[in-house]
Structure of F-box/LRR-repeat protein 7:
Amino acid sequence: MEGRAAGTTKLGRMSPSVYVGGGTLGRISPGHDLGYHTLVTRQTPTPTRDRNTPTRDRTTPSPWSEVRASPFPALDLSALSSCPRSSPRPQLPQIPPQQQQTTPQSQPSLETTDQLLATYKGKRLARSSPFDKLSDELVVRILSFLPTNAVCQCARVCRRWYVLAWDPRLWSTITLTSDGIHADRAIKQITRLLARDSGGCVHVEKVILNSCSRLSDRGLSLIGRRCPELRHLEIKGCVNITNIGIFELVTQCVSLEHLDLTGCPQITCIHLNQQGGMEPEPMHSRQLYLQYLDMTDCYALEDQGLKVIVKNCPQLLHLYLRRCLNITDIGVKHIASYCLMLREVSVSDCVQITDFGMYELAKLGPNLRYLSVAKCDQISDAGIKQIARHCYKLRYLNVRGCEAVSDDSMEMVARSCPRLRALDIGKCDVTDNGMKFISEHCPNLKKLSVKSCDMITDRGVQYIAYYCRGLQQLNIQDCQVTIEGYRTVKKYCRRCIIEHTNPGFF
């Protein structure tokens, strides 16, 4: 009796559930879950049943009819209700030989071992992503529109994306513009992964590291060593960069054409010798191929350092020295002496520059197309006249804040520079007569600012509106212009955007 009770108790713990769908052949008890090999190799005898065991009424529908109707041989479930001592232990069913040779079309759920095991263990296979249907070329094209940090995050999605994310075509430009990024470490990791196959980041041509205050000379030196084909570099607001880092970069990136050092206060020179002296290199020595240089807000730059820079970069086309307060007429003379091909020059807020500096810049002649001397209050009509006589192909002129500039120089500018497209004479001593000269001789003017010109009235604005029909921007803030002048501009210059401070103009 104890053995029978024990046998009954053990069988009572069996799970009465049977799993047939999804490729599962059957399951009786966790104690008999012997693995995948039991489905195909284990030989099981056919279970028998005691004659005294009551049978189910055949007229009553059985809940296991679907199981018995399956293509697999079902278990004799009556053994679970009454289990005499003589009855054998229920086993997993044997797959008939004729069913083992079924075609894949008849049993699509048993195509692969992975699917069978996943289904047998009660797991669900991961659904395929829509990206899996895209070709590698399309995925690379999509990733090309993402910034550098986003591409690095995509590389962590899966193995395929990791391979595609480090495709050299995605890394012609490296952009890291955040103060929280450890720029030196990021540059080291990125360049190491890009250089693992080719030995160098030969595809990297543009690097933008604006506002990375943690960037140091070590990071620039690393860029110089691993990116020999670099052509474009921006490091705006990187306050820890010194002359040493710039030297390491320019001496190794011989193809560098664009360099933006805005807001790097420790930069005083771009030299090509190891000592970093302020004396320029001999004319036969190595030179840089820089065409664009922006040193705005480099407060430590002086005339001697500027001389070394312009002598080492004779092919400069664009030079911006805004708010370099230590630059004087001597530095401007060096610019005109060594960079004869300059097209754009800005010395805005360089308050020590006078008319003598304008005489030197006038030597650039018709090559000069862009000139900004805003807030250089020591410049007068004499310097602007000299510029107008020799730089007759000028397109942009900004003399905002030069209060000594008047109608006299505006007449010379209008007559000598008919190709002028943009003019800023804000806070200058210009009247309606000066506006008349400009309107009659510069009909292709697109942008004009007369902000804070107290002596300009509706008459001067009407001259501009009538002759310069293609005007696109007009700034008349703090001027003596009424609603009549405003309506005239709106009438003749339909596409013009007017900036004003009069609420009655709306």
About this structure: The first strand starts at residue 173 and ends at 175. The chain has a mean pLDDT of 80. The two ends are 105 Å apart (CA to CA). The chain is about 30% helix and 10% strand.
